[in-house]
Every structure is written in structure tokens, then in C-alpha cells.
Write a structure and sequence with these properties.
This protein has 83 residues and is mostly helical. It has 2 helices and no strands. Helix 1 runs antiparallel to helix 2. The radius of gyration is 16 Å and the shape is rod-shaped. It starts with a helix and ends in a 15-residue tail after the last helix. The mean pLDDT is 89.
């Protein structure tokens, strides 16, 4: 593998850590949204945050896949993540 290819795989690994953080943030937002009054402003804000985080997570997944492209590791490391 080339030096550039290795650097891209290392970057993909770092981004996977961020992917886990985003998953945790989404889960926290969902917990907050389901713990209170479903009609409260706080619940609405938590659900909006969860949607934003999931949108960012999907974008980050695409970045990771692009960096892994052609390395033989694409998709295998993302299969165990939450969708």
C-alpha cells in the first residue's frame, strides 16, 4: 500500500472514533426525548438534535467509506455501527 493510502486508512480510523461519539450523542438525545413530556419544547429540541446528529453521522460514514475505497476494508468496519 502507498504512503497516501496508509494515511487515508489512518484518517478513516480516527473518523470512526468520531462516528462512535456521534452515535453516543444520538442515543443521549433519544433518551432525553423519551424521558419527559412528549409535547414539551425540551423533547422537540432533543429530537431535532438527534436528527442533526444522525445526518452528520451518515455524512461521516460516507467520508470513511471514501477514504477506505480500494483498500479492502471498506464497509467491514462500519457494519457493526448503529444506523
Amino acid at each position: 500500500m502507498t504512503e497516501a493510502g496508509e494515511a487515508m486508512l489512518e484518517m478513516a480510523q480516527r473518523l470512526e472514533g468520531m462516528l462512535e461519539e456521534l452515535t453516543d450523542m444520538a442515543m443521549d438525545a433519544l433518551r432525553l426525548a423519551t424521558s419527559g413530556d412528549p409535547d414539551s419544547a425540551e423533547t422537540g429540541e432533543a429530537l431535532a438534535l438527534e436528527r442533526r446528529v444522525l445526518k452528520a453521522r451518515r455524512s461521516l460514514e460516507r467520508c470513511i467509506l471514501a477514504l477506505q475505497e480500494g483498500s479492502g476494508t471498506a464497509r467491514s468496519s462500519l457494519d457493526d455501527g448503529a444506523a
